[in-house]
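Chain A, query sequence.
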Amino acid sequence: MFVDEQVGVNSAAKAYAINRLLMEMTQNNDLYNRYAWFEQKHSPRLSQNELADANTLFEQWLAEINKNGSLYPSEF
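Chain A, predicted structure.
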C-alpha cells in the first residue's frame, strides 16, 4: 500500500479503496485485521476530497465485482 499511495494520480485514495475492498471480501479474520489496521493508520492522512474519492471508488469497484464476479467486464 505504501508504494501505491506515493505513485500516480489519486493513488492514496486508490490504495485506501483497495484496502476496503480486501476487508469487504475476505473471510479470513487475520487478513481482515491486517487491512483494518492499514485503514485506521491511513485514513487520518487523507484529505476530505481524497476520502470521498476513495469511498466512491470502493463503491464503484464493489458494485462491479458483485455484478461480474470480478473487477473486469463480463464480456472478456
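Residues 1-5 have pLDDT under 50 and may be disordered. The radius of gyration is 13 Å.
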